[in-house]
Amino acid sequence: MKGKAPRAPVLSVIVVIFDMRREAERTLLTLSSSYQQEIDSQDYEVIVVDNGSSPPFPSQLAESLGNNFRTFYIEAASPSPAAALNFGVRQSKGENLGLIADGARIVTPRLLGFARRSFAAFANPVCTALAFHLGPDLHRRAVLNGHTQAEEDRLLAQIDWPDNGYRLFEIATLGGSSRRGYFLPKCESSTLFVRRTLFDQLGGYDERFDEPGGGYVNHDFYLRAVNRSDTDLVMLLGEGSFHQMHGGAMTGAPLDDAQRKTRRWSRQYQHITGRKLALPTKNTHYLGHLPPEAASVLAISLREALEP
Question: What is the per-residue burial (b if ≥16 Cβ within 10 Å, else e) of 209-240?
Fold first, then answer.
């Protein structure tokens, strides 16, 4: 008697990494079934796309985290993650997708479980969570005040991470795109969940965004998904992604350099899309919980929403 064929995963999570072994090891750990709660390893897969790292990220490190991890290496890689994300989606099997363009982002323990619930609750969700930077300030400013990877390691040890992933809220700062919290719109998502059918209808990530790090490619895909009339925007309460220090396109860039990059990215965005970058106006649905460690984020969100 032949055994049953393994069932296809409900959710495929695509993670792009580039020259970030320290950060990627942590990120992938937080996507493993030993860390994620309220979701079974058979229900999701993690597709790790190494976008040309030198040396390549050791595939055995990812695959040791579970049978639901697969790794791919792109040798002639673009400096933008757009093509790598599209490639990862083509390798995946799930009807629903999780998209993480920057593999330096540690996530909270029920991110995948609540994202999965959004697909059960809504016909065509665009599901997102707030983004944070580990440490006392945005990384491009924090490095000017002495924030280092060693200091980040110390902060993680201080909260006994990864024993309680929700304590990440205690040592982090809201990211630039998420700075206004839960209740006001944002123009980008660092951890985005959509149905595969929607991804295909949108044509995936626009590979014309060829700047190192992608420029505004993340913004473009998120806004195209949110602004459709047939989608529901879903914000996950109590979950998030936490950016680690690494040699990213903006991390540690002097202010004048960062401003030049954002101006260049804005020009490229307007050239490709024919419009200026703007916040979405769609009403938001909320799904999730409020761990005590995230209470301060709720307070910030309420203050931002209530300010005249």
Answer: bebebbbbbbbbbbbbbbeeeebbbbbbbbbb
